[in-house]
Design goal:
mainly beta
Length: about 700
């Protein structure tokens, strides 16, 4: 007989899976023939009915209910709250929702005129997914106040699965609606191109005259209502903006703006008359000549000018630009905005009158006095320089010959000349221009440069530079070469280029310092520029090569080569002798024997120990105290005192020599074994204790 055991949780899980699969099959099946169910209602209704029936029989499929949305009535009388499931006031699908199922209304005044909102009642049918909450508003809302509705707690509203709406579920903030507005005024009314409003715009003024320029053929009108819920109609366009076509200059065009309040009545009409005037503008926006310096600079409201031109200017082109295209212009009585004016002789003044007549017929004259200069005879330089080199003498405007000394490696020189008079011209070695790059001859040669300055009147003055190129230094030797440690073979000499430098085994690096014989030479050590370097050495017993390269000013290199030989350390940690001032040794000392017994008499209280190292580079300590000698205090008679002599080689390895010093004990026997005389009879006979 077999006993079958069931796992309750697994069976329940399988049961839910089967029901879930059955639900999917049912929905798909209904969808497949939904087109044949038109007589029973839409597919959405069928789907909702199936869903509702399933939730009734399978309540565990329901999620936790929540508030999904809410709407506020336009008259602020109620809030309709929508839930994600059908809801009840109590578990087991009992009861319609009542006011006590909700918290008091959360009210935020936000600076508005309403002062409070309370719940007056709740209309709800048990099992419905929405409820209408009647509210009472204290004061008149201005539209900025908000309300929020939440469940009284997490156990006041339930769905069919006995799951409660959480206390944190909310309608979110809902803005109260302000009452209908009768405001029918404008807060602003603009007309593009308006030069003047009569009167100035005010919300409560309803008739205006606006003046625009004669060149304005149309204006854009924008009306802004005081209350955003009102509407404005410009010129019967049906919009708050419109473009108004104007009549001819000096005519009036009238349009109206109709403002309708939110409540629809009463309406208000604003009447605007746009007057297009003729232009009185007889000014210029610009007035120019093709040459010359103006005093003062042109300004539209300045009417007299001096224009200074060069001595060689025989005529001037004058160009005038009117500020208003409706104005006309003439120059020296000839209609037109441009004219070529013939000037008088050098040093004379020619007057030009530019007459501007506005659309209204008023003329404004702009007067130019064009002053023709005389030519300048200045052919001097205010400065003359080269990018490199030492000058003899220093530059002076009235000195015309110079020597310029440059280094051997300078192959070209930049010459820059600055004229004293901007009207003068300059050429360097025959090429026009104030700057030139001059190629120099070989080392030790002189290159001559001629800077020719020609005045405005055509007279030339030459400045002559003799540029002397030096020769380079060939010295690539050292006056000194040293290391911070080591023995040199041979000793350093400027003309010796190879050396051995012997350093101790424990030297890991060497500082090399080179001193050039000629400060114009350069030096590098193992390829790195610089006169000093720290060179890392190889292992003990190796040779590290250091190359000191000295390059002369002329570019020729001489190498000094150092072979730095690093010694090896000594491993000898033996003694050539080890002795005490008293005692008998067993065995006798031998350099390679490391343990000894030393027997001393009973009355020896201390022993002097002396050790001699086989290698002077080794070091020794006795019983931990550095030194080759020590006085050792012994223990009592019959005791052994151990002495350790530690010998450490140069390489750091230690060998111990151990002495066990055995101190004897003294004899208390003070008797005779015999006592005799050569003659005579003894009474009593001799006994050791008698």
């Amino acid at each position: 007989m077999y006993k079958i055991q069931f796992n309750k949780n697994k069976v329940l899980f399988l049961y839910k899976k089967i029901l879930h699969l059955a639900l999917i099959v049912l929905i798909v099946s209904v969808s497949a023939f939904s087109t044949s169910c038109s007589s029973y209602g839409s597919w959405d209704k069928i789907r909702d009915q199936v869903k509702d029936d399933l939730l009734v029989y399978l309540p565990f499929l329901m999620s936790v209910p929540r508030i999904t949305s809410a709407t506020l009535a336009n008259d602020n009388s109620s809030v309709t709250v929508y839930f994600s499931n059908r809801v009840y006031s109590d578990i087991n699908e009992i009861g319609s929702l009542v006011a006590g199922d909700f918290l008091p209304v959360i009210f935020n005044q936000n600076g508005g005129t309403a002062t409070n909102v309370t719940i007056a009642g709740v209309s709800h049918v048990a099992g419905s997914d929405s409820a209408v909450i009647s509210i009472t508003v204290s004061g008149i809302p201005s539209g900025v106040e908000t309300i929020e509705i939440r469940p009284a707690d997490g156990a006041s509203i339930y769905n069919g699965a006995n799951k409660a709406v959480r206390a944190t579920s909310t309608t979110h903030e809902l803005y109260l609606h302000p009452p209908c507005s009768t405001v029918n005024t404008l807060s602003a009314l603009t007309v593009t191109g308006a030069m003047a409003w009569t009167p100035a715009f005010a919300s409560g003024t309803f008739a205006y005259t606006v003046v625009v320029s004669s060149g304005t053929t149309q204006v854009d009108v924008t009306a802004t209502v005081t209350n955003m819920l009102a509407s404005a109609d410009v010129n019967s366009s049906g919009s708050s903006t419109d473009t108004i076509i104007l009549g001819v200059p000096n005519s009036d065009t009238t349009f109206m703006v109709l403002v309708t309040p939110e409540c629809g009545v009463p309406t208000q009409t604003y009447t605007v008359t746009v007057h297009r005037e003729c232009s009185a503008d007889n000014s210029l926006s610009s007035l120019t000549t093709d040459v010359g310096a103006w005093t003062p600079a042109f300004a539209s409201t300045t009417y007299a000018y001096d224009v200074d031109v060069a001595w060689n200017v025989a005529d001037v082109d004058v160009t005038a630009t009117v500020n208003d295209v409706l104005a006309s212009v003439s120059i020296n009585g000839t209609p037109g905005a441009t004219a070529n004016i013939i000037l008088g002789a050098q040093g004379s003044t020619t007057t030009v009158t530019v007459a501007v007549t506005s659309q209204c017929g008023v003329t404004q004259n702009y007067v130019l006095d064009i002053n023709r200069a005389t030519c300048s005879a200045d052919n001097s330089l205010s400065s003359l320089a080269t990018d490199v080199g030492s000058w003899t003498p220093a530059f002076a405007s009235t000195t015309y010959a110079y020597d310029v000394d440059v280094a051997w490696n300078v192959t070209d020189v930049d010459v820059t000349a600055t004229v004293n008079d901007v009207l003068a011209s300059v050429a360097i070695d025959g090429t026009p221009g104030a700057t030139a790059n001059i190629l120099l001859g070989a080392q030790g040669s002189t290159t001559t440069v001629t800077v020719a300055v020609t005045s405005q009147c055509g007279v030339t003055q030459n400045y002559v530079l003799d540029i002397n190129r030096a020769t380079c230094s060939a010295d690539n030797s050292l006056s000194a070469l040293a290391t911070d440690v080591g023995v040199w073979t041979p000793a350093f000499a400027s003309t010796t280029y190879a050396y051995d430098v012997d350093v101790a085994w424990n030297v890991a690096d060497v500082d090399v310092t080179a001193t050039v014989n000629d400060v114009l030479a350069s030096v590098s050590i193992n390829g790195t520029p610089g006169a000093t370097a720290t060179v890392t050495l190889g292992a003990q017993g190796t040779t590290t090569t250091v190359t000191v390269a000295v390059t002369s000013q002329c570019g020729v290199t001489q190498n000094y080569v150092l072979d730095v030989n690093r010694a090896t350390c000594s491993a000898d940690n033996s003694l050539s002798s080890l002795a005490t001032d008293v005692g008998a040794w067993t065995p006798a000392f031998a350099s390679t024997t490391y343990a000894y017994d030393v027997d001393v008499a009973w009355n020896v209280a201390d022993v002097d120990v002396t050790a001699t190292v086989n290698d002077v580079l080794a070091r020794v300590s006795i019983n931990g105290t550095p030194g080759a000698t020590a006085n050792i205090l012994l223990g009592a008679q019959g005791s052994t005192t151990t002495v350790t002599v530690a010998v450490t080689s140069q390489c750091g390895v230690t060998q111990n020599y151990v002495l066990d010093i055995n101190r004897a004990t003294c004899s208390a026997d003070n008797s005779l074994s015999s006592l005799t005389t050569d003659v005579g009879a003894w009474t009593p006979a001799f006994a050791s204790t008698t």
